[in-house]
Write a structure and sequence with these properties.
581 residues, alpha/beta, ABC transporter transmembrane region fold, Rossmann fold, 2 domains, six-stranded mixed beta sheet, four-stranded antiparallel beta sheet, 63% helix, binds adenosine-5'-triphosphate, binds magnesium ion
Length: 581
């Protein structure tokens, strides 16, 4: 159960994110103090003005306007500095929070992050962060409101202490309904933020599927799905607005009651000669000026509760336990040439009844290519994912160059491995950056050399800005084969001892295919390779073939031996499960 107590959340937020902004916060608070002080003077100025004029002291006409201009300019100046510093501090803290959340999520276990739609994760950075920012700015403004009210009460006391007590006693009555409403708002806010995440996920999915939606004519279905999400979002927002809307009428009524009572008492006093018109006007002015900060304080709790709901969600995401991390005393991976051993490995995805890998023994000697083949769902991709520890096996162990992979540092393990998936992953960055990320710090010459070896140099050089050409979101400006060659260049640059390859199933045109195969041959040379094979050429060139079915190895041997055996492998080959190229 994540920690949701407001005080704990607040303490952690201050310590980890807001404290660094304390300089600006202090300036903002000082301005707030000045602001409250000047505001509290207004009723006194009004009282003085009225009393001086009723006494016919006209020389006040000269200096009073100057005092008024001075007071309003001071207020303006304070307001400006307060907002600049306050927003600066709040935005700085939010940026810090966003970075911390991103750091936590990019390092979280794959299983944890993959459990939610990417857009839902993304929405935390926007909706929750906005709620937190609002909470921060509103609290500082709230401190200002408290100070302003304090100052106004002081003015009232100075003007007429008995009346001041009467007014000051009425407002606290509002505290009770407001806290009750605050609890309601917090619940509603949490629901609203969830709905916002769901809607973002749906929109993301829908736009990403744009070609399918058009060819299958799913427009109406998608519209209905979006409409349901928007309706759920609206409903949750309405719930929140309803809860919030109760606050203002309560305060409005209380304010009216106060002014009415004060009017009656003051009117009676003035008529019996116990007070001056100035005091009377000044007092009413104080009550009216106090109405705005009191109202703001009333809704402050609601805003705070929304902020806390956001903070709780962000911290919960940050605190997801990490199972896949360096074990205590982890050493770097020992030197070696890529000797891979899976010993009685089993693995089950969380929430699945059937194991994805029931029992897997595998030995790939340095430089060997071992091909995994088998029907869909046999566990081939899962077997590969266990080596870089995207998941940890639930039983058995995996050794790389004699070291158990759980006992070496994650960084050294992953540095020794390159993975090339079925779908080439291209970042929205330049061709250079897309290859160089295989080995951060690589020079231009090294990147070019890798690109040449991956048969990618020619087409990259022909791009408008060569290696500095942005490849567009998802590499949209390249063909499928070109994308694959860029991802192969990235793997080559990494120069890993182990290559994990999930061959593309989609057929490429002959020229691209030849280029990709040539790049692959270069990449495999001298490294231990585990390849999920979809091409006959790949299995024929492999040193050994493991045939998997339902999470187990059911056949093992060379292409010729397996064909002679006439089992599952022979059936797969005969059913043309492999591309011929
Ligand atoms: N992220 C996941 N969460 C839960 N179950 C999963 C996940 N990924 C795969 N599985 C399940 O694990 C089993 C093995 O899947 P895997 O992806 O390893 O198969 P595969 O042999 O690579 O199949 P294909 O040839 O279709 O790629 C399947 O039953 C699949 O439904
Ligand atoms: Mg697969």
């Amino acid at each position: 159960m994540p920690e949701t107590k407001s005080l704990t959340l607040l303490r952690r937020f201050w310590r980890d994110h807001l404290q660094a902004e304390r300089g600006r916060l202090i300036v903002a608070l000082l301005c707030t103090l000045g602001l409250a002080g000047v505001t509290a003077l207004y009723p006194v100025i009004i009282q003085q003005a009225f009393d001086l004029f009723t006494r016919g002291e006209t020389e006040a006409l000269v200096w009073l306007p100057l005092v008024i201009i001075g007071a309003t300019s001071a207020r303006g100046g304070f307001l400006y500095l307060q907002q600049i510093n306050l927003q600066g501090a709040a935005l700085g803290a939010i940026e810090h929070l966003q970075n911390a959340l991103f750091r936590a999520l990019t390092r979280a276990d794959l299983a944890v992050v993959a459990a939610e739609a990417p857009a839902r994760q993304a929405s935390r950075f926007v909706t929750d962060a906005t709620a937190v920012r609002e909470g921060v700015t509103r609290s500082v403004n709230g401190i200002g409101d408290v100070l302003t009210i304090g100052g106004l009460v002081a003015s009232m006391l100075w003007l007429d202490w008995q009346l001041a007590l009467l007014a000051a006693l009425l407002y606290p009555v509002a505290a009770w309904p407001i806290t009750a409403i605050g609890r309601r708002v917090r619940r509603a806010a949490s629901g609203m933020q969830d709905r916002a995440g769901e809607t973002a996920a749906l929109l993301n999915e829908s736009f990403a599927a744009a070609p399918v939606i058009r060819t299958y004519r799913l427009e109406a279905q998608e519209e209905a799905r979006a409409a349901r999400a928007f309706a759920a979002w609206r409903e949750s927002l309405t719930r929140m607005a309803r809860a919030r809307a109760r606050i203002d009428p309560i305060l409005e009524a209380l304010g009216g009651l106060t002014v009415a009572l004060v009017l009656v008492v003051v009117g009676w006093r003035v008529s019996t000669g116990q007070g001056t018109i100035g005091e009377f006007t000044g007092f009413i002015a104080a009550v009216l000026i106090a109405a705005r900060p009191v109202r703001a304080l009333g809704t402050l709790n609601a805003a705070l509760q929304e902020g806390f709901a956001g903070l709780a969600r962000v911290f919960a995401a940050m605190d997801a336990p990490r199972a896949i991390a360096d074990s205590p005393g982890a050493r770097p991976l020992p030197e070696g040439r890529g000797d891979i051993r899976y010993e009685a490995v089993a693995f089950r995805y969380p929430g699945r009844a059937e194991p994805a890998i029931a029992h897997l023994d595998l030995h790939a000697r340095p430089g060997e290519t071992v091909a995994l083949v088998g029907p869909s769902g046999a566990g081939k991709s899962t077997a590969l994912a266990l080596l870089p520890r995207l998941y940890d096996p639930s039983a058995g162990r995996i050794l790389l160059d004699g070291a158990e992979i759980r006992e070496v540092t994650l960084a050294s393990l992953r540095d020794a491995i390159a993975f090339v998936g079925q779908e080439a992953v291209i970042f929205d960055d330049t061709a250079f950056a897309n290859i160089a990320c295989g080995r951060p710090g690589a020079t231009r010459a090294e990147v070019e050399q890798a690109a040449r070896a991956a048969r990618a140099h020619a087409f990259i050089a022909a791009l408008p800005q060569g290696y500095d050409t942005p490849l567009g979101p998802g590499g949209g400006r390249l063909s499928g084969g070109q994308r694959q060659r860029v991802s192969l260049a990235r793997a080559l640059l990494r120069n890993p001892r182990v290559l994990l390859l999930d061959e593309a199933t989609s057929a490429l045109d002959a020229e691209n295919e030849a280029a990709v195969q040539a790049a692959l041959a270069t990449l495999r040379a001298g490294r231990t390779t585990l390849v999920i094979a979809h091409r006959l050429a790949t299995v024929q060139n492999a040193d050994r073939i493991l045939v998997m079915e339902a999470g187990r190895v059911v056949e093992e041997g060379s292409h010729a031996a397996l064909m002679a055996r006439d089992g599952l492998y022979a059936r797969l080959v005969r059913s043309q499960a492999f591309a011929a190229a």
